[in-house]
Amino acid sequence: MFNRAFRYWALLPAVLVLGLLTLYPIVQLIRMSFSDLQYVQAGISWTSVGLKNFRTIFGDPIALVALRNTAVFALVTVTIETVVALVLAIAVNRVKIFSRFYRVIVILPMLIPPIAIGVMWLMIVNFNYGVLNELLISFGIQGPAWLNTAALAFPTIIVVDIWHWVSFMFLILLAGIESLPQELNEAARIDGATELQLTRYVTLPLLRPTISVAVILRIIFAFKVFDEIYLLTNGGPGNATQVISSYVEAVFFGQARMGYAAALALATAVLIVVFVVGYQRINTIAGRAS
Amino acid sequence: MPKIGDRRGVSVRNVSHAVRKEPFLGHLILWLAVLVTVLPMLVTLLTSLKYTRDIISGSLFFQPTLGNYASLFTGQGGDFLHLLLNSVIASVGSTAIVIIISSLAAYSISRFKWPRWVSGVIVSWLLFAQMLPPIVFVGPFYLMSRTLGVYNTPVALVMAYIVLDFPLAMFILRRFFADVPSEIEDAALIDGASHATTFLRIIVPIVSPGITAAALLSFVFSWNDFIFALSLTSSSSGMTIPVGIANFAQEYQILYGEMTSAAFFAAIPAIILVVFAQRYITTGLALGSVKG
């Protein structure tokens, strides 16, 4: 009996876990977004408020800033990371010695706790004791407060993110390059192609599907950014580095507006799903056309 | 079956090695990348080995000390031992549960004839869950942990980390299970073994590289998490190391010594994994994310 039904028994725990830990929380999130939640003595009281929370979003300038910052952040970091990672992956693929050493080092940042990455960069860009400003002082320049100046905080965060995530792009793109048939490279070389021509006319066109998958994965990650920003600027100065996650967290815990935070989170989820589905569509069409 | 450390085209490449010379520019670029990658870690490591006076004076030459690491476990660092314990419980607990559940599910989906929509629904749901930022789950998990009375305990974190780790583990394992030749399984079944026995004794050992990759990555994701630990814990009885680190940084006076030593300490698993298990990490992520 158990044996014949094994496939059901084997799938059951996963279905239960997914139901309780992903489906139920999302249903709960939807309920929260239509409610006003207040801390009361006995726990939390729920009052239904209809669409009020969603209407609030449109009149909330900080929500708009957070969305814009997140979008700019995703666009800039993913673009730079793709280019840098592509250069590094092609380079690692072409060298013979030290190849394993390069791989190990370049992949490392992806595995380090993001909060520790925040600390590492704090030790560089900190106004008082940061290595960067100490270096500038030795040239006689008083460095700026990188994290407390509105115009500098956002670029600094972007640099930290690039340091963190080039590793992931590198890994995915390198896996893609290594799965390409090496015979093509040999054939091109024998025909007298330079390394640059080889890259431009053989590697890149073949790598296009991998690049497109890597880019969408990274954009999805970019929308999750939170840890380093929390540690380095906590969204500030003002709201210069406020992103979706940091703002939702601040609304939920800092302002204790749980219903509104849920509406913001739900809107984010919808936005991401729409974006990803749209990206896949465009990509499929573009892939067919080319 | 995807093999860990499969070196495709080795022979062809070896031939080319004989004729091609080392690209100088490539090495230059890569050494630059190595330098940029290592520098922030080195600065942190060196700071963590300094006395406070040397941190403030910013001297490059200093008398090294392990005092900051010691103070994590004894002095002002407070309950770091407790945080370490919580981190280990939450990471190991969630990894164990995820691996057991996802290998059973991956086995069921990839080895039995299910109607097409079953695996379709499961896979798209996992992709959907993986896509969402953790902040989407934070609110509901906060309420849930309060209701269940597990707020500020590792149990709340284990629940959250299952969500974090499950999709990737499932994608990796599905690929590995699907590639086991069915003859092996059929032979065992014909010999009278039950499905459960076949799974445990025959299939699991064959896919153990996949299980290792999934387990290592699950552990790393859980160990690295900050946002759930920040949201679902409030004191050292439930907090994990990353939250402790953030607290050092956000004191009125940043505790540089403790902060940097805790950060370097938290990065040690990553360093160990990348040096000793790079193949598992690489194959796991490449298979699980791109081809998932």
Characterize the structure shown.
The complex is a heterodimer of chains A (290) and B (292). With 290 residues, chain A is mainly α. Chain A has one domain: MetI-like fold (Orthogonal Bundle), CATH 1.10.3720.10. Chain A has helices spanning 6-33, 52-58, 61-94, 99-107, 114-125, 131-138, 150-178, 182-190, 195-222, 227-232, 244-254, 258-289, and strands at residues 35-40, 43-48. In chain A, strand 1 and strand 2 form a beta hairpin. In chain A, helix 3 packs across helix 11 (244-254) and helix 9 runs antiparallel to helix 12. By secondary structure, chain B is an all-alpha fold. Chain B folds into two domains: 4-48; 68-289, MetI-like (MetI-like fold). Helices cover 77% and strands 0% of the residues of chain B. Chain B is built from 15 helices and no strands. In chain B, helix 5 (80-111) runs antiparallel to helix 11, helix 8 runs antiparallel to helix 11 (208-224) and helix 8 packs across helix 15 (278-290). Chain B starts with 9 loop residues before the first helix and ends with a helix. Residues 7-18 of chain B have low confidence and may be disordered. The interface between A and B is large, with 106 and 107 residues.
Question: Which stretches of chain B are low in confidence, meaning pLDDT under 50 for 5 or more residues running?
Answer: 7-18
Count of domain modules of chain B:
2
The beta-strand count of chain B equals 0
- How many domains would you count in the coordinates of chain A? 1
State the oligomer: heterodimer
Count of DSSP H/I helices of chain B: 15
